[in-house]
Amino acid sequence: MASEIASELASHPSASCVLIPVARWPTELLRNQIFAWHNSRWLKRHRHRLDVVHVNGFTTWAASDVNSAHFVHGSWLRSPLHTARLRRDFYGGYQWLYTALGARWERRAYRQAGVVVAVSEKVRKELLEFGVPDRQIRIIQNGVDLQNFSPGLADRNELGFPEGVPLALFVGDISTPRKNLDTVLNALPKVPGLHLAVAGSTASSPYPQLAAQLGLSARVHFLGHRQDVPQLMRAADVFVFPSRYEAFPLVALEAMASGLPVITATTSGTAELVGAECGIVMDDPNDADVLAVALKRIAQDPESRKRMGRAARVVAEQHSWQQMSDRYLRLYEEIAQHESARKPEDFDL
Predict the structure, then answer these.
(1) Where in the chain are all domains bearing CATH 3.40.50.2000?
(2) Would you tell me how many other CB atoms lie within 10 Å of the CB of residue 130?
(3) Residue 11: burial class (beta carbons within 10 Å; 0-12, 13-18, 19+)
(4) How far is 180 from 198, CA to CA, in rounded Å?
(5) CATH 3.30.70.20 for domain 156-316
(6) Residue-wise pLDDT tens digits, 151-193
(7) Which pTM does this prediction carry?
(8) Which residues pair with 170 in a beta bridge?
């Protein structure tokens, strides 16, 4: 069940898809709850036909066998870096409301789940703080498409990038401060010669204006929303993503699979995978000076970049889609074999 379904999945002979369109409703907050209401009604009618119900977060009001925690709103709400603490305006207020309600709804969703899957060790710790018993939690990290995201070369001219200069890549939602493009831009003046490509819709984004104010218009390339991210990664030299909060950002793992060294922060779940051999992990995502040093180190040492990129690919190969799906399938089989052993009332949250 989904609000959008890829055509190759909708037409797959082994898949039965239930489309619940919600795009016409205003705000993500309302769309999520309309979707949850509709799929809960469907599950109430058809639950007896299913062996395993797997959901994500608070996307349904119904009980589930498996709930994957890709984001812990309760943790994000307490963070000093939450959008509402950085922006004292309507947008910041909306983000506080969305996160506060999300924390309440996800608590109910985890209470109704047999197993809660954390997508990183960071998320497991947050779930424990949230009151989910350790015995109820499994860790299954996200997987990456190793064929689509792989090392190689891309024609920079075709992509509109300058040749012969070090190029950093940032991919993410740049309408919100959570992804932390502002710190990247503030670090860039201290790294002369380094260019930055930014993939993300510029609608309602303050960052093109910030780049202009910093005198970076010639070195920062705002690309808008892109579908060719694998090609962008093959054209780049380093992936920079010091997000202020991420459970396990798939885009960082995609960059590693593409053979890119990664600069991230401890506030991101992917930092667990980024050792010194394949990237740099910052303690404070807001420290532009430390970020500048990291960018300069990688930008000015091509041989070190290549070594880090090769090591990053090796790490990514241990986190393929196939490995992730195998772990989920084993969990499904376990639940199907012991369907009466795990019930929501068995867990005291």
Answers:
(1) 7-143+321-342, 156-316
(2) 19
(3) exposed
(4) 12
(5) no
(6) 999 999 999 999 999 999 999 999 989 999 999 999 999 999 9
(7) 0.89
(8) 198
